[in-house]
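Exercise: predict the fold of this chain.
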Amino acid sequence: METHGATPAQQPSYEGVWRFTAAAVDVSVPQARHAVRDLLVRQGAPVHEEVMDGLLLIVSELVTNAVRHAALLSPEIAVEVSIGPEWVRVSVEDNHPYRPKALEADWGQTGGRGLLLVREIAQEAGGSCDVEHTASGGKIIWAALPLAPMAPGPGGAPCAPAVTSPRTDPSAP
């Protein structure tokens, strides 16, 4: 009997870090959302549909905030997408020094709930988000979500891998 050694086909790696810049103008919001979605699809990242929906809403909110609140001091923003083996992280960087906080919403106002929404989407998916200062005095606002919806852990509590700073190597655990 003759046996043939078969080399398993390697799946293309979807992991990596991509960064693009955009003008801090309204049209950049849908462009950034489409660019992130197209990148994830092109890379073959196994992002669950409900995670993708949340992630794209987060991108829209973060870019909208940069356009509305930082454009005067930061006419250009940067969007970074990091894909790891179990998570995806998006960040938006601008040169405005103000570090916003997700405040409790005043439901009588028509705006001002973007970061609150980002925080809630990230937490519900089992991810996290934060705001960090850059060395140049600006800020990076990031959110990280697991690629798949969280599986219940012991006692029914959701469990997901921890993700921290957007500068972490995507191949690191």
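Check your answer against the key: Strands lie at 16-23, 76-83, 87-94, 128-133, 139-146, 151-152, 158-159.
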